[in-house]
Automatic annotation (TrEMBL):
Boundaries of every DUF4440 domain copy: 8-115
Source organism (scientific name): Geodia barretti
Top-level division of the source organism's lineage: Eukaryota
Entry protein name: DUF4440 domain-containing protein
Lineage start: Eukaryota, Metazoa, Porifera, Demospongiae, Heteroscleromorpha
Pfam families, alphabetized: DUF4440
Database matches in SUPFAM superfamilies: NTF2-like (SSF54427)
Entries under Gene3D superfamilies matching the protein: 3.10.450.50
Amino acid sequence: MASFAGVIQALNDRFMEFYKNNDMKGLSELYTEDCKLMPPGTDVLTGRSDAADVYAKLRKAGVMTILFESEELGPLGSEDALYERCRYTFFREDGSIYDNGKYVVVIKKIAGQWLFYLDIFNTNRPS
């Protein structure tokens, strides 16, 4: 198996390339068909269409760049599932910070391809 860090870095790099190019369809294909997303202020969202919508809304809100800082990663009991615990920063076009927080993703290997399955992120802003 490829290193955990290598798998996650490759997925994050592809994610950022799609996001940078405003290709939300391509970005959504990095997720399993039955993925679950849990962004702040919403119920659980399911499926690639919802994944595309979550990130399209961030773009419309002015988030042009996302920085991921991995803090912990590893297997989830098998060679076909990984997790990553990370910090994120969302930046506006002018470089100012739109938001920062933390997230956890579960990544599954399906038909030889690593894909995001669970994606939960929470802002550090006070409520």
